[in-house]
Amino acid sequence: MVSCIQAAKDLVMHCMVCDKHRNFLKVTGQPIAERGGLVLTHFPVLDGQPANRGHLLIEPRRHVVDPAELTDDEAGALGLLLRDAILILQNEVGAEHAYVLRINDKVAHFHCHVVPRYPGTPKEHWGPKLMEWPEFPKLDLEQVQSLSGQLQKKLSLIR
Q: Which CATH superfamily hosts domain 4-158?
C-alpha cells in the first residue's frame, strides 16, 4: 500500500511545472521575478513548438493544485506578480491589453496565464480566440530566454 506521503512525492516528481522549476533553462528562461514563493516566467517551449511571445505564467514553487491552497502570503504575492506581469507586457513588450486566466485542465499544478494582446490583433481573435490567431508572434527557446532576461532587468528597474 502506498502511503499518502509517497503518493504526494510521486505526484510532484511527475509534475511538468515542478520539473520546469528544477531546470528552467531546459524549456524557458530564468524567472522574470520571484515573490513570496511564486515565480513569474515566460511560457515554455514544449516539444520543440515555439511559444507565443510575451505569454507569461505565474506559479507557486511548491506543488499546489488549487488556488484555495495558497497561503495568505502566496495569495498576496500572486496579486503583486500579476500587476508586475501586466506592467511589463504593456511597457516592454508592447501589449495593448493583457488577458489573465487559469485553466489547469492539463497540468495539476496551479498556474495563471498572462497573455498579451498586441496592437493590430483582429477583433475576431480577441479573448479566448487569441491563441488561435495565426499571426501571434512566436519565439524559439533562445528567444524566450533572451526576452526573459530583458524583462527581468526592466522589472527590477520599475519596482
A: HIT-like (3.30.428.10)
